[in-house]
Every structure is written in structure tokens, then in C-alpha cells.
Amino acid sequence: MLGESFEYAKEAVWGKWLKWVLLIIPFMTPGYAFQIYRGTKPAPEIDDWVATFINGIKLFIVAFIYAIPVIIVGAIFLLPLLFAAISQDSAALMAGVGSAFLGVLVCIILLIIIALILPMAFIRFARTESFGEAFNFREIFAKIGQIGWGSYIVAWIALIIAMIVFEIVMGILAIIPILGWILDLFLMVVMMIFVARYWTHVFDNS
Predict the structure, then answer these.
(1) How many CA atoms lie less than 13 Å away from 177 in the CB half-sphere?
(2) CA dist 100 to 66, 78, 107, 167, Å?
(3) Whether residue 42 has a cis bond before it, omega within 30° of 0
(4) 3-class DSSP state for residue 47?
(5) pLDDT in tens, 163-184
(6) Any residues with CB less than 8 A from the CB of 36 and at least 6 apart, and which?
(7) Total tally of structural domains belonging to the chain
(8) Dihedral over alpha carbons 116, 117, 118, 120 (to 10 degrees)
(9) What is the DSSP letter of 131?
(10) How far apart are CA 186 and CA 169, in angstroms?
């Protein structure tokens, strides 16, 4: 699945420079991923730029809604530290640091849970075009159960390893002023297409 996903991403943009440049525009790559999540093969062309842009915004909204609990929890646990820093009370400051540390732990746990859910939520949303289905947790967890939780975790680990390789390459390129940063922008597009295709594989081959 990793190999095919990379070939898919390469096919999507290699030699298609105008399309590659277009996908750098904010929300365009998520909008393109929206089509990939539908199981489109070979890699789709961008026939409707406006629809692709709007679909990208829709996926961003879904992701933002999922992030709201993390934002709320983070704010609740970080506020005591902020108030303690303003008051300059050493006891309150220590309590605030403890609260912030606990908040970070809770936020990390929430982020892991969201990361597990989000790929399946994106695909369900893309295939049904219903915001409600992106938050249909019973069906999402049923799908993960159908894939198998062990297999799903292994799929995540394999993707994380692949992403680390991407990040190393991008980190090396970032050393090159200007040109390296531009190349990183192009590689980011490839990485997002790769990830979308990978999760589509996981979903469809359950």
C-alpha cells in the first residue's frame, strides 16, 4: 500500500507542473484529497478548481470541529498558569505549571484519539458528502473494527515511518535557502496526496 500510494502521488503531479503549482494554493490539496478519498483511480485531474477549493474548506471545517475539544481542554488547563503569571504569586505559579503539564498530557491523549478517527471520518464524509457522517462515531469505529484494531495500529505505524522519511528529506532541503523552501512546498503536496491514497487503501481493503 505504501509503494502504490507513492506511485499514485507521483503519477498525480509528475510532469504536470501547472497542476502541481495549483495544489500549493491553500485548501486546494485537501480538496484534491477529497476526490482521492472517494477511491478515484487513476489520480484525478482538477476539472473544477472552485469545487476543489470548496471541498478543501469543508475538510478543514471537519478537522477544526474535531480539534475543538483539544482547544477547550488546553485553554482550561493553561488559564491557571496565565493568571498565576499575571498575579506573580509563586504558589499559584507552581499550581499553574502543574495544571499546564496535566493539560498537555490530556491534549496529547485527545490528539491520539482524534488522529485514529480522522482518516476514516474524512473518507466517510467524502463518499457521502454529509457532515453528519464525518461524526458518525458508531460507523467509524465499526469500520476500524472491520479493518481490525491491530491492523489499523500497524497501518498507522507504517505511515509514521514513511512520514519520518519524508520529513528527513524535507529537512535536508530546507537547509538550502529559498530553493529548498520552494521544493519543500512541492514535496508537501506529494506527501498529502500520498497520505490520502494510503488511507483510502486502508479503508477499501478492510
Answers:
(1) 0
(2) 21, 5, 10, 29
(3) yes
(4) coil
(5) 999 989 988 988 888 888 888 8
(6) 43, 44, 193, 196, 197, 200
(7) 1
(8) 110
(9) G
(10) 12
Give how far Cα 174 sits from Cα of 10, 20, 24, 48, 79, Å: 21, 19, 17, 32, 36
Which of 2, 41, 10, 1 shows the shortest CA–CA distance to 189?
10
**pLDDT (tens digit, 9 = 90+) per residue, 130-141?**
999 999 999 999
Q: Which domain holds residue 190?
A: 2-204
Please state, in angstroms and rounded to a whole number, the distance separating the CA atoms of residues 45 and 5.
Answer: 17
Distance separating the N- and C-terminal Cα atoms of the chain: 12
Q: Are 27 and 53 in contact (CB under 8 A)?
A: yes
d(CA 39, CA 158): 21
For the whole model, what pTM was predicted? 0.90
